[in-house]
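User: tokens in, sequence out, please.
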């Protein structure tokens, strides 16, 4: 699959999102509440609108699935999946750990993913069959000899229900929990791809939360799957694991002991 044109396009999409987002960062703009009570800002909407305008003009046959403005159909079997600000809570707190996520999903499988951090000007690009890059330079996950050495991250315990939280804590207890990281949203996956973290474990994610992460993590030598070890695709249930060292997968699945 030659994605040269799509790679050039996704960089322009991320550039447009940066321009839309940066004026709002630490500006004191109020947040609104969506129907599901999650926060949304002017920056979320402006960034997604900027991305959609370019896609509509240049890729009219492709579907678009965005967090803020829903899904528009296409005839190509390809879908651009957009989360304009993943980590709105971090954005509202003035923390530069949020990111713009853009993925190209073909027949339900992510083949291209981009994580952009506009404030720090850091951009990870993952493409199926190619090494993941950070600002054009290849990055790699790190090896992890044992689960007890692993640094684990999650956006926060309050995002788990009781059942999932119990499974997460069972896993976390077997890692080096002195190095556990809370908060960070998509930035945790970027750090895992760059060899700074070993495991990210989350539940209740939507397609726009994780689609862009898969090519980034896997292109850096890691693996992503659900809590049963199955590959992620558009119909996955939102239980997401990322591992820097695929050799630890069986240990992690056993420690989670889910078998949903």
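Assistant: Sequence out:
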């Amino acid at each position: 699959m030659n994605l040269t044109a799509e790679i050039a396009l996704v960089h322009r999409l991320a550039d447009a999102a940066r321009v839309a987002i940066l004026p709002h960062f630490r500006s004191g703009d109020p947040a609104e509440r969506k129907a599901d009570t999650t926060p949304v800002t002017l920056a979320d909407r402006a960034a997604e609108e900027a991305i959609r305008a370019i896609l509509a003009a240049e890729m009219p046959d492709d579907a678009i699935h965005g967090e803020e403005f829903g899904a528009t159909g296409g005839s190509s079997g390809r879908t651009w999946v957009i989360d304009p600000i993943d980590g709105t809570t971090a954005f509202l707190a003035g923390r530069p750990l949020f990111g713009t996520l853009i993925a190209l999903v073909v027949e339900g499988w992510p083949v291209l993913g981009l994580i952009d951090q506009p404030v720090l000007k850091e951009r990870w690009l993952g493409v199926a069959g190619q090494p993941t890059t950070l600002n054009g330079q290849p990055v790699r996950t790190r090896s992890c000899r044992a689960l007890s050495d692993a640094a684990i991250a999650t956006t926060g315990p309050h995002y788990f229900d009781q059942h999932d939280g119990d499974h997460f804590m069972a896993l976390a207890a077997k890692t080096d929990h002195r190095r556990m990281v809370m908060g960070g949203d998509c930035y945790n996956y970027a750090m895992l791809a760059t060899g700074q973290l070993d495991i990210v474990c989350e539940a209740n994610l939507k397609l726009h939360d994780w689609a862009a992460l898969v090519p980034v993590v896997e292109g850096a030598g890691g693996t992503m799957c659900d809590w049963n070890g199955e590959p992620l695709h558009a119909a996955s249930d939102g239980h997401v694991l990322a591992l820097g060292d695929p050799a630890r997968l069986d240990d992690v699945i056993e420690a989670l002991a889910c078998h949903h």
